[in-house]
Amino acid sequence: MRILPKQVSSLIAKTVKKPTKRLLQQTFHSALAKVSGGKEKALSWSYAQFELSPYVLLQGYLQGTYPMPDMNGGKTLNWYDPELRGIIPIPDFKIRNDLLRCLKKEKLQEAEKRFEIKINANFHETLLACSKPRGGDTKTWITPEYIKIALQLHNMGIAHSIETYQNGVLVGGVFGISINGYFVTLSLFHSVDNAAKIAFYYLLVKLRDDGFKLHVSGDANTWFSQYGAINIAKNEFREQFMKAITTPIIFSNKVPELAF
């Protein structure tokens, strides 16, 4: 009979006495912390060894990290906790003049050209559209395994999409994770000019109107800068994060009304 590595590990765990086990744990933990560059990085590496599941993915967001699937075909997650985090201040987000003109012009468009916004009407198709490689890239972090997990989180009321339609066709959208007063924007897509920008603007208005406390987007030196994104230090992010996830907020399917 062939004994598998997991069986060997189980046998060792059962036979090693507690003092010896504790010594081994301390020794390996100390070594892992040194080669990883610190205890927190060692902890992140340990988390990355778990296989992708709704529970593990949610645990990552509950700790303020952003877990990303392995793009090289693996079924594990890499957990990131950078020194700077890009956020868009919810009460003070910005809108560029060109987008404002576009939104005002929308109200005058013919029905078949006018954009329609929906929330969680077609999360799956929005997710699939976001998962397509961009530009010259051939890989995407939104892997088939991640899509399955995200759909489960959506069914649990944790993952959401804001969608833009034109003449009944999905042409843009954004999806993210909502945990009480904490929202993480994960990806956007568009097949028609301005469709993603408009969906994202509706998201910003919704987060403000619903009373959300913290919105993580992306680095302030990226596309998100046009909405007022800023980078904040890890300690400041953690303080805001803890307040946000302990503030009861429900992400509803109500589309906000825009006022200019």
Structural notes for this entry:
This protein is α+β, with helices and mostly antiparallel strands and 260 residues long. The protein folds into two domains: 5-80, no CATH class; 84-245, 3-Layer(aba) Sandwich (Aminopeptidase). It is 41% helix and 20% strand. The protein contains nine helices and nine strands. The strands form three sheets. It has a five-stranded mixed beta sheet with strand order 4-5-6-7-8, with helices on both faces. A two-stranded antiparallel sheet has the order 1-2. A two-stranded antiparallel ribbon has the order 3-9. A hairpin with a 2-residue loop joins β5 and β6. α6 (123-131) runs antiparallel to α7 (144-155). It is globular. The protein starts with a helix and ends in a 15-residue tail after the last helix.
